[in-house]
Amino acid sequence: MPDSVLLQEILKYGNLLISPVFIAGATYWLKCKIDTANSRTKMEQDRKTAEELGKIKQKLDDANFPNILSKLASTTELVETIQNEISNKSWVNQQIFPIRQEIMQIVTRAVTDLRELVYLRNQAYLNFHHIYYENCGFSGGGFDVPFYADPKHQEEAERREAEYWAFAEKEIEFEKSKHKKKYSSHEYKEKDELLFTSVICHIESVLSKLSLNQAILSPNTVELSDFFEYAKTKLTSSQQFDHDEGISEWEWSEYMIEENEKFLAEIDKQHSHINELTKTELFFDSSNNF
Questions:
Q1: pLDDT given for residue 290 in this prediction
Q2: 116, 195 Cβ separation under 8 angstroms
Q3: How far from the centroid of its chain's Cα atoms is residue 220's Cα?
Q4: Which sign, positive or negative, has the C-alpha torsion 113, 114, 115, 120?
Q5: How many domains does the chain contain in total?
Q6: Closest CA to 118 of 286, 269, 259, 273
Q7: Superkingdom, according to UniProt (predicted)?
Q8: What pLDDT score does 194 carry?
């Protein structure tokens, strides 16, 4: 008999059937039905769980799990090796940073003092050339008159021209006196000599440092030695006027000024280059090579 029919019969004959024995039997029957339903539900859940576990196992088998573990171990070892290398590089960077810093400070000081020396000496050349070869800018009063002009106008022009040059000569002599007093003074010569000696010492120090520390400096920084060798030679070589070269003293003076200005331009160029190299040497990352 189906369950629904049984329940209908119970309800139909409820008063006749309700007794302790009937109630006990019905209760047992209901319990069996509930246990059976729970058992079926659990079996279904266990079946689904088993299927999921089977799928996972199949994926692990397909992926060659032992090989994955082996690769993971190798990767872990590689990561540890990289970490050790980074740590070692960081330690090395800490050791060489003060050396690089000192070198770049010396290089910067050398090029700064070099520029000051060359600039001051070129100013002396410019001053000398302006006074002795350009007559302090005096070139004539512009009092010329046509040859057919009234003789009175001619005389007036000559008088004014003479006054002009008399004044000009006084000014030129005054400037010559000032120039001689300044550039021939013991104070100026001593200052120039001290600055010259300091520059040469700094250049020699730079050359020595660059040579000794090539292994920890960038190639561009090491190549600065070429410029400082050139600067040292230019400062220490004797360049004097020689009549046999076929040029005048005025031309020689202009040549020296031109050479000094070229030298100053090169110094300024190298100074900017050194500023960039300083950033490279001091603000590097762990990927830099030594």
A1: 39
A2: yes
A3: 13
A4: positive
A5: 2
A6: 259
A7: Bacteria
A8: 96
In eight-state DSSP terms, residue 182 is H
Burial of 202 (0-12, 13-18, 19+ CB in 10 A): buried
Residues 41, 104 within the same domain: no
Long-range CB contacts for residues 120-126, cutoff 8 Å, separation at least 24: 120/192, 120/195, 121/192, 121/260, 122/257, 122/260, 122/261, 122/264, 124/183, 125/253, 125/256, 125/257, 125/260, 126/257
| 3-state SS, residue 75 | helix
Are 49 and 118 in the same domain? Answer: no
How many whole angstroms from its chain centre is CA 251? 44
Q: What angle do CA 83, 88, 91 make, to 5 degrees?
A: 125
- Domain residues for 119? 93-282
Q: Which long-range contacts (CB under 8 A, 24 or more apart) does 7-14 make?
A: none
Cα 74 to chain centroid, rounded: 37
237: closest CA among 262, 259, 266? 259
What's the one-letter identity of residue 267?
I
Please give the chain's pLDDT, 290 residues, in tens.
555 555 555 555 554 445 555 555 556 556 666 666 666 665 666 566 656 655 655 665 555 556 655 665 566 665 555 554 544 455 555 678 888 999 999 999 999 999 999 999 999 999 999 999 988 888 765 656 555 566 666 777 777 777 888 888 899 999 999 999 999 999 999 999 999 999 999 999 999 999 999 998 999 999 999 999 999 999 998 766 565 567 888 888 898 899 999 999 999 999 999 999 999 988 754 344 43
Q: Residue 222, exposed/middle/buried by CB under 10 A (0-12, 13-18, 19+)?
A: middle
Give pLDDT, residue 221.
95
Q: Is 202 helix (H, G, I), strand (E, B) or coil?
A: helix
CA distances to 17, 115, 231, 257 from 264, in Å: 126, 7, 11, 10
Domain match, 24 and 114 both: no
